TrEMBL record:
It comes from the Bacteria. Residues 42-151 form the MobA/VirD2-like nuclease domain. It comes from Pedobacter frigidisoli. Residues 351-383, 398-422 are annotated as: Disordered. This is Relaxase. Residues 404-414 have a biased composition (Basic residues). Residues 352-365 have a biased composition (Basic and acidic residues). InterPro entries: Endonuclease_MobA/VirD2 (IPR005094). Residues 369-382 have a biased composition (Low complexity).
Length: 422
């Protein structure tokens, strides 16, 4: 079992996050502690009011929301009644047994896991100390619970990489509700992947047939920091209705995405060298062609996204490492890993492709199948013309097309007030 504890400043936000998952059908509330009612009897207003009553007791405690995730190994079939016992036992061992808390079973990953929402404000208005709680209490509780409930042992923090936090399902148009498919991919990528730019964020999304679009730079949407998400078809073209980022629950809006860039820059550092080693080994072993290079890396869990300009010429490359969940621009890894150097070393590589001839394997054959040779983020496919038209500002006023305006001549004459100016 892997336990993760996060703190925040909005208990209402944590509840809304989990309740939105319930609405989408990817989570189920299974336990309510110290609420006076069973979980089935509780309405949203009851849940919010119970926590807000405590947080208002001490307005000086700003960080008063606690979000805990308990992840079980994918091989384990943990029943709901056992999850309830484990959650209650864990909370008691870390000092939250007398606090109100809600437990949700989430089903948006390939392993069983729970989300627990609570507050660190006691009924007497004192604060539960969260400093180093992971080392001092949570780690000890985790090990004891693993033994008592015969769970797969996490063997320390390194195990967290083995209990995979998410297995993102490809968004396939027509197979599931479009909005739900987009939401599942976006939420998982935001939570699990480490990207440092909008292009890198899109590279990760495209691996699962979703794309984020800000619109042309002169559009109202772009200038107001808006964004829409769409599903991609087998040819990498947008299909179906795009959805505004603000209509999706969670942190999918632009300023939330951009807020992760700087933080992820530090987080992904340790994974750069291992990725470079894999790329170099692949270049040495595989036949020197771009197609072989892409396919070989895909088998190792690494998607390759070539970026193209409006004329279809490749100008950049992005690597999406699904093993470490890190996204790297080729140039960030070094000159040898840039698109220019790579294409030069791959003898016999295919000629530069036109933007409408980008090769993408059939969707559905593999987890990373929609990530190859996508066109530049701000280039749109034929099916996007309506969306561009709706968001774009007119380039000029209609009268401007008739010819340049003639300059008005200044009228000569005396100024008012007797020719004096103030």
């Amino acid at each position: 079992m892997v336990a993760r504890i996060l703190t925040g400043k909005s208990i209402r936000g944590l509840i809304n996050y989990n309740e939105s998952k319930v609405t989408l059908g990817t989570a189920t509330p299974i336990l309510a502690n110290r609420f006076g009612l069973d979980i089935e009897q509780l309405e949203l207003r009851h849940k919010v009011a119970r926590f807000e009553h405590l947080t208002k007791l001490n307005s000086r405690i700003k960080t008063n929301a606690v979000h805990i995730m308990l992840n079980f190994d994918r091989s384990e079939n943990v029943e709901v009644d056992q999850m309830q016992k484990i959650a209650a036992d864990y909370m008691d061992r870390i000092g939250f047994g007398e606090q109100p808390f809600l437990v949700y079973k989430h089903e948006d990953a390939n392993h069983p896991h729970l989300h627990i929402v609570t507050t660190n404000v006691n009924p007497d208005a004192t604060r539960i100390d969260m400093h180093n709680i992971g080392k001092t209490l949570s780690e000890k509780a985790r090990k004891e619970i693993e033994i008592e409930y015969k769970l797969v042992k996490a063997e320390g923090r390194g195990r967290e990489q083995q209990i995979v936090p998410v297995n993102i399902e490809l968004a396939l148009y027509g197979q599931k509700e479009t909005k739900r498919s987009i939401y599942n991919v976006v939420t998982a990528v935001l939570r699990s992947y480490k990207f440092t730019s909008f292009a890198e964020y899109n590279a990760a999304l495209k691996s699962f047939n979703v794309v984020a679009d800000r619109g042309p730079e002169d559009s109202v949407m772009f200038q107001k920091n808006g964004m829409v998400y769409s599903i991609l078809d087998a040819d990498g073209k947008r299909i179906g209705i795009p959805f505004k980022a603000s209509s999706l629950a969670g942190n999918s809006v632009l300023h939330k995405v951009e807020g992760k860039f700087l933080m992820n820059l530090e987080k992904r550092k340790q994974y750069a060298e291992p990725l470079k080693q894999v790329i170099l080994e692949t270049l040495e072993k595989e036949a020197p062609s771009k197609k072989n290079f892409i396919n070989a890396l895909e088998k190792k869990g690494i998607s390759v996204v070539f970026r193209q300009n409006g004329q279809g010429l490749i100008y950049g490359i992005t690597y999406v490492d699904h093993n470490s969940r890190c996204v790297f621009n080729g140039s960030d890894l070094g000159k040898a890993f840039s698109a220019k150097a790579l294409l030069k070393n791959l003898e016999g590589n295919e000629p530069e492709m036109d933007k409408h001839q980008a090769h993408t394997p059939e969707v559905g054959k593999g987890r990373f199948s929609a990530s190859q040779d996508m066109s530049q983020d701000d280039q749109t496919s034929q099916g996007e013309s309506l969306l561009q038209f709706l968001f774009a500002k007119p380039a000029q006023e209609p009268i401007a097309a008739l010819g340049p305006k003639r300059k008005k001549k200044k009228k000569k004459g005396l100024l008012r007030n007797g020719g004096l100016s103030h």
